[in-house]
Amino acid sequence: MGRSGGNTDFPGMKRIMSNWYKFASPPALYPLVNRLIPWFAIPSAILFAAGLYVGFFVAPTDFQQGDVYRVLFIHVPAAWMGMLLYVLMSLYASVGWAYNIRVSSMMASALSITGALFTLISLLTGSLWGKPTWGAWWVWDARMTSTLILFFLYVGFIALQTSIDDPRRADRAGAVIAAVGVVNVPIIYMSVGWWNTLHQGATIRIVQESTIAPTMLAALLIMLAACWLYSVAVVLGRLSCIIAEREHLEIA
Amino acid sequence: MLTATELECVRGNRTVFQELSFSVRPGECLQLTGPNGSGKTSLIRILCGLMEPSHGTVSWKKLDIRHLAEDYRTCITYLGHRHGIKEELTPLENLQIICGLNGTEISRNHAVRALEYMGLANRETAFARFLSEGQRRRIALARLVFNSSEIWLLDEVLTALDRDGMESVQALIDGHLARGGMAVVATHHGLGLSQGRFQRIELAA
Amino acid sequence: MKANHAVMFRWLIRREVLLAWRRKADLFSALAFYIIIVSLFPLSMDPDSRLLRSIAGGVLWVSALLATMLGFHRMFANDFADGSLDQLILTPQPLVLTVIGKTAAQFLTIGISLILISPLLGLQYGLTPNDTRQLAWSLLLGIPVLILLNAVGAALTLGVHGGGLIAALIVLPLCVPSLVFGAGGNVSLVGAVLAPTLVFAPWAAAAAIRISLG
C-alpha cells in the first residue's frame, strides 16, 4: 500500500470523480431531477401537438388503407419505445446491481412503468388498426404476439418489484429478472416468428410497403421525438417520487 | 485467526451495530450477548458469509472471506437457531446427509454414536417429525461430535435444550477449544466453559 | 483438505430424491394434475379425432408447463423455512452446483414422471407412435428448461408473500420459446433453447438466492 490512489495526482480528475459520486447519491440528485423535468415535458408537449397535427391533417390519405393508417403515427413510436425501454431498463438495473449504484436501480423501476405503458398503447392501437385492416381486433401475427409477450415480461418485472418490501432486494431481484428477460427477448422473437411461419394458413399480410410520403415520415419522426422526450420527462418524474419515498425527503 | 474489522450492519433504515472490531484466536471462545434485535444473529450470519455487512470486512488468516469463499466454508460449521433438520428424514439420515454435503462423510456407526452422545439412543430411525423440538435441536448438534472444522459459529443453539443437553454441548465446545478450535456462540445462557480463553461482546439494542 | 465436489453432489442428489420420495403426495398430485388437465381439454370441445390430434402437442405441453409450476416455489422455500437452505449455501460446494443438483433431482423425480406418463395421454388424443416419440423427445429436452426457469423464479420470490403466483408471472413468459418449439414438434430447436438455459439459469438462480437471503 505504498502508493496513494492515482486520482490524487490529478486534482481536476478528482473533482470530476467526486462530482460523479455526488450525483450517484440519490438525495444529491433529487433537486437536479426536479429541475430537469420541465425541460423535457414542455418540448414533448409541443412536439406531440405538432406531430399529431402533421399526422392527422397534413399527411396525405393512404391510397390503400385510407385514413385508418394514421393510428400508426401513435402505434409505431409506441412499439419502438416499448422495446427500447425494456433494453434500457435492463441496462440500468444491471449497472445498478453490478456497481451498487442505487440511482441506476431506481431508474430501472421508473422505466418499467413507462415501458409497460408504451407496450400497452402499441397493443391497443395495433388492435384498433387491425379491425378495419385485417377484419379482427386481434390477430396472432408474429409482431403483435411478441409485443404481447413483451408486455407480460414487463408485468412480471413490476409484479416482482412491488411484491418485495425491502427496496435493495427489490432492486437486485429486478436486475436478475431483467437480465434473464433481455437475454430471452431475441429468443422469444425468433420462436414466435418461427411459430408464425409454421402456422400461416390463410395468410394475412401487411399491405405491401408503399413509398412513404415525406410528410408521413416527418410526422412519424416528430412523434418519435415527442415520445422520447415524454419518456424522459415521465421517467424523471417517477424517479423523483421514488427518491423522495425511499430517502424520506420532503416532496418538492 | 478470525478477524472482524469495523463491521456495520444496517437492516431497513436502522443501523443495528457499527464499528465492531474483534478477533478470535485458536482456542478462544467469543460469546455474544444482548437483547433481542441487537444483531446477534446478523453478526453470526455476517461471520459465516451468509450476509454482507454494509461496511467492514471479516477475514480469516488475514484474507477476506469474500475472496476465500469455498475455502473458508470448509473451515466453518454453522448452526443457526433454525436448525435445518428435515422432518421427513430420520435423525440418522439428517446427520449423514449434512456431513456428506460438507464433504466430511461419516459412517453409519459414527453417526449412531454421535446421536447416542446427544442422548438420542434408539431414536436414530424415527422420523424427525415425531421428535420434540429439543430432540431435533440435538440432531443438529450431533454434527459437532465428530467435527474437526476450525471455527464453530453457533447461534442460540441452547434454546429448547434441557440441562443435560446443555452440558453435553458445553463439553463439546470445551473439547473443541482444547483442540485449538475457535467458537463464536450467541446465547443468553451462561457458558460454563473450563477450557480455552473466553471473551464476551455485549451488543446494545 | 480439498473438498470433493463429486461426493458432495452425490449426497445432494440423494437428499433431494429421498425428500421427494418421502413427500410422495406432492409428486402424485402434480402427476394427477397433469393427467386431469390433459383430460379436460377434449371435454371442453368437439372431440373430433383430427382436431384432437392437431392440438395434442400444445395441450400436453401447456399442461406439463403448469404441472411443473405447481408447487414449484417450494423447491427453495421449504429449505428456507427450516434453515437448511443456509446449510446448503455454507457447504463447500459452489452455490451454482447446489442449484444444478437440486434442479437435476427435480428432473429425476417430477420431470421423468411427467415424461413417462405423456405417451399414455397421447393415446387419448390418438397420436401416432411417430408423433408420440417426437413429443416425448421434446418433453425430455424441454422439461429441464422449464425446471431451470422455475428455479430462477422460485429463488427470486423466496420468502415473498404470495411468491408462488409472482414466480409463475415472471416465469411463464420466459417459457414461450421452449413451448413454441416443443409443441411445434421441433426437437432440435428445443435442444438449442436448453443449451443456453443450462449455462445461464443456474447462475441466475444462485445469484437470486444470495439476493433473497442478503
Structure description:
The complex is a heterotrimer of chains A (252), B (205) and C (214). Helices cover 77% and strands 0% of the residues of chain A. In chain A, helix 3 crosses helix 5, helix 4 runs antiparallel to helix 5 and helix 4 runs antiparallel to helix 7. Chain B has 205 residues and is an alpha/beta fold. The longest helix of chain B is centred in the last third of the chain and has 16 residues. Chain C has 214 residues and is an all-alpha fold. Chain C is built from ten helices and no strands. Chains in contact: A-C, B-C. Chains A and C meet through helix 5 and helix 6 of A and helix 8, helix 9 and helix 10 of C.
Low-confidence stretches of chain A: 1-11, 201-205
Strand content of chain A: under 5%
SS field, number of helical segments of chain B: 7
Sketch the topology of chain A as an H/E string, one letter per element. HHHHHHH
Quaternary organization: heterotrimer
Biggest pleated sheet of chain B = 5 strands, parallel
What class would the helix/strand composition of chain A place it in?
mainly alpha
Low-confidence region ranges of chain B: none
Distance between the termini of chain A: 45 Å
> Helicity range of the residues of chain B?
25-40%
SSE order and pairing:
The complex is a heterotrimer of chains A (252), B (205) and C (214).
Chain A: H1 11-24, H2 26-58, H3 72-98, H4 102-134, H5 142-163, H6 167-198, H7 214-247
Helix pairs in contact in A: 2-7, 3-4, 3-5, 3-6, 3-7, 4-5, 4-6, 4-7, 5-6
Chain B: E1 2-11, E2 14-24, E3 28-33, H1 40-48, E4 55-60, E5 63-64, H2 65-68, H3 70-73, E6 76-79, H4 91-101, H5 108-117, H6 133-142, E7 151-155, H7 163-178, E8 182-186, E9 197-202
Parallel strand pairs in B: 3-8, 3-9, 6-7, 7-8
Antiparallel strand pairs in B: 1-2, 1-4, 4-5
Helix pairs in contact in B: 4-5, 4-6
Chain C: H1 5-22, H2 24-43, H3 49-69, H4 74-82, H5 84-89, H6 95-124, H7 129-156, H8 163-174, H9 176-183, H10 187-213
Helix pairs in contact in C: 1-6, 2-3, 2-6, 3-6, 3-7, 3-9, 6-7, 6-10, 7-8, 7-9, 7-10, 9-10
